Structure formats: structure tokens, C-alpha cells
Amino acid sequence: VDRGADLRWMSQYPHEAEICFGPLSGLQVIRTRVESSVLVVEVRLNVNMVSLTLEQVVAKRYKVVAGMCDNIMLEIDKSIKGDEWATLCRQLNDDDGKVKIVIHDFAEKQLSKIKARGAEDFNTDKVLLSEM
């Protein structure tokens, strides 16, 4: 956990000894001191175990979209049980409620397609907006 990738070989400033640490890593200040006119800051690599994992960060937008799909389905189910739909079904001579079933099944199919995408897909703004 306390090693980073040495980037000197590709750095514009190889004398600075640049190092790349893993995602979600942080630097914890241990102490500071002044040497001549230079502020020296001693640090230690820190991985916050409370922070989200990469997988959780990637899945954030997916969770929003999946929750939206679930809520839309709940609203559809609630709506088609209402008086307006009963009136519509009577006007269409649909005593069996086939219209309700078709609408429910269609919505469920479309929303399932959205939820079947990979979580990483939704980190692309274009995909996120197209599915919302």
C-alpha cells in the first residue's frame, strides 16, 4: 500500500522524482519543519477505509438510474389501478384489463433493458442522459 509507480522515466522533470499512487489514496501530514527557507512537509500514504471503493464510485450513477426505473414502475403500477384507467378500460370494452397488462409489460421490458446495462456505462454523460 505504501508504494507508488515511479514516473521519472517519463517525467518532464525527472529530478523531481514523481510518483503516481493508486486511486483514492491520500497523503497524511506527519509533521512540518523549516530548513533554511524551505518548508519541509513529511507525509505518509493513507488509504481511507471509510471512503467508497472504486466499484462503489463507478456504481453511483447506476444506482440513481436503477432507483429511477424502480420508481417509474411503481408509479405505473399505482396509476393503472386508478379510476382513470378503469374508466378508459370500460370505454374500450376491455373488461379483462388487457390494456393495463400491455402497458405494464411494455414499461417493465423497457426499464429492464436500461437496468441491464453495466454500471460503468452510466459514467458516460451521453449514455446517462439518453437513458434518463
Provide structural commentary.
With 132 residues, the chain is α+β, with helices and mostly antiparallel strands. Helices cover 46% and strands 19% of the residues. It is built from four helices and four strands. It has a two-stranded antiparallel sheet. It has a two-stranded antiparallel sheet with strand order 3-4. Strand 3 and strand 4 (38-47) form a beta hairpin. Helix 1 runs antiparallel to helix 3 (98-115). It is rod-shaped, with a radius of gyration of 27 Å. The mean pLDDT is 86.
Give the helix/strand layout.
Elements: E1 5-6, E2 19-20, E3 25-35, E4 38-47, H1 54-80, H2 83-91, H3 98-115, H4 125-131
Antiparallel strand pairs: 1-2, 3-4
Class from helix and strand fractions: alpha+beta
Q: What is the share of helical residues?
A: 40-55%
- State the order of secondary-structure elements, H for helix, E for strand: EEEEHHHH
State the oligomer.
single chain
Compute the number of helices: 4
Characterize the main sheet: 2 strands, antiparallel
The radius of gyration is 27 Å
Question: What is the β-strand count?
Answer: 4
Strand content: 15-25%
Low-confidence spans: pLDDT under 50, at least 5 residues?
Answer: none
Distance between the termini: 39 Å
What's the pLDDT, averaged over the residues? 86
Cα shape: rod-shaped
Question: How do the strands of the widest beta sheet line up side by side?
Answer: 1-2
